[in-house]
Every structure is written in C-alpha cells, then in structure tokens.
Specification:
The chain is mainly alpha-helical and 93 residues long. It has four helices and no strands.
C-alpha cells in the first residue's frame, strides 16, 4: 500500500528543509553580511504566500545562485547554499 501525500505537501516539506538550511547561514556571524542578507531575502520569499511554491522556489534559487558566486563566501556556506538550491530545484506545483 502506497501513501500519496500529494505534491503540495512534498513541496512544502522541501521549502521547509531549504529554510532550515538558510536559517543556519543567516545566524552564522562568520558568514559575510551580504550573503546572510541574501539568505534572509530568500527565506522571506519562500515564506510568502503570494506565489505558488514552484515560483517562490525559483525566485529564491535566483537570489542564491547570484550570491553563491561571491569569492568571499566561506566554503561551508557555499556548500549549504548549493544544498538549499538542490532541494529547491525539486519543488513543483
């Protein structure tokens, strides 16, 4: 017997996972301020209810990809951002 939670539930779970990862970056004072600001902005987008889950994920990915190119970013933060992007790429409507 297979339980189907629906794509909306799964998308919400993925958004929550990404928010948790990004929250760790925001709270880490060893990460440059501009990167923490970008992570915070991505969290706000993911938490808003204005657009569908997939649109919010896509908007957050755009912000995160741009800041992931920063040469001043610590390696662990870059890896965490890539992990969040990977999770967000799985979000569908």
């Amino acid at each position: 017997m297979r339980i189907d939670f629906g794509s909306d539930y799964m998308s919400s779970q993925k958004l929550a996972q990404a928010i948790t990862i990004l929250q760790r970056i925001v709270e880490d004072t060893g990460v440059p301020r501009n990167i923490r600001r970008a992570a915070s902005e991505a969290i706000k987008i993911l938490q808003s209810t204005t657009y569908s889950n997939a649109v919010r994920a896509s908007n957050a990915i755009s912000i995160l990809e741009e800041c992931s190119q920063d040469p001043n970013m610590p390696l662990f933060a870059r890896t965490a951002i890539w992990q969040a992007i990977s999770i967000l790429e799985q979000v569908t409507d």
